[in-house]
Amino acid sequence: MTQLEAAKRGKITPEMERVAADERRTPEEIRALVAAGRVVIPCNKRRKATRICGIGETLHTKVNANIGTSEDFADHVKEVAKLKAAEGAGADTVMDLSTGGDLRAIRAIIVNESSITIGSVPIYEAAVKAAREKRSIMDMTPDDMLNAVRQHCEDGVDFVTVHCGVTLAVLEQLKKYPRVCGVVSRGGTFLLEWMKYHGKENPLYERYDDVLSIAKEFDVTLSLGDGLRPGALADAFDRAQVHELNVLSELAERARDAGVQVMIEGPGHVPLDQIEAQVKLAKDLCRGAPFYVLGPLVCDIAPGYDHIAAAIGGAIAAAAGADFLCYVTPTEHLSLPDVEDVREGVIAARIAAHAADIAKGVPGAADWDRQFSEMRRNRDWKGMLENCIDPERARKYREHIKAHIADTCSMCGKYCVFKLQSKATKRNKKVKQARK
Q: Which residues of the chain have pLDDT under 70?
């Protein structure tokens, strides 16, 4: 049985018990949420990650880090270093988006080296393979696409992005209502160009039952990709995006009926004032299916700082109900990220996720901040440096310009408000005792 089938039959699996312990919930609460399709536990039957996570309603907002090779840089050693950086920075999942080198070998290394949940995008491999063997991605066959999905599942990936909602009807919407930036999803572009060239429907949509059969066999969670996500603020919430979302809502229902866990992917570049509406529409249409967003980025003009633009949007999206944030690194739109970029991206997304968890009242979220604030008031530097979201960065800044007074920082020194208040309290206590 898949996790979903077990949950529907009233069975609590070991994975549900682990998620319940992590989330301060009862196993029965997790089972009920999985059964309703409002929580997923991506966990391939062929691979058991050390750190399994639940994604969905009322749980802590999860963070994904994208890694992977390109044609220009296909060094698997560097990708493993990025994987370890993502794990060390607190990412809940990692997606391998490799397009350069021996893709299957690289994926096997990442799967074997990872302690956390792994995702991938099989259409990349189908396209790269066709380009190498047949000189064009247009030479992909429907079987090539489905075989790629199966291969990724066989290799132990826990969730796969499949762009099943990119249909001929969506293509018509794009023709009638052109966009500023067109289609920015790489997987979506592969499929749209294939459809234009062959004049045929998207095979992943047309043969969706086959996709479901493969996913069910391995209990791999489907992440229904948003091939029409906006890549510019001007394209947000247009007809093509909403049309695809409606298709995804139907496909999500079919997945649940088939016993396959499913989540929905979302935008993209979205103006600040649209984010809440977009999240709520997706959650309502898809009956509470976990919602996975890239960013969203709240402005288009911040290359080098897109991780900040994404963190702003991510906090708002998660507070509105998004369950899963895909990080954005400072190199977004510019280059392949390195190890430090991965760390920066994960931490920025985790800050956004945590801020949203406080707003949503997720159990334990506000407790962390309360305890930390008490350490700050007591000038407990050891406690603060051990319990902040990025101890490595905090220690670096703490040591960069040392204070002359050990229990203060070099900014305030003897004028530290907490130190002054502490002295005043002690002084007043002595005065009161003397008066007695």
A: 436
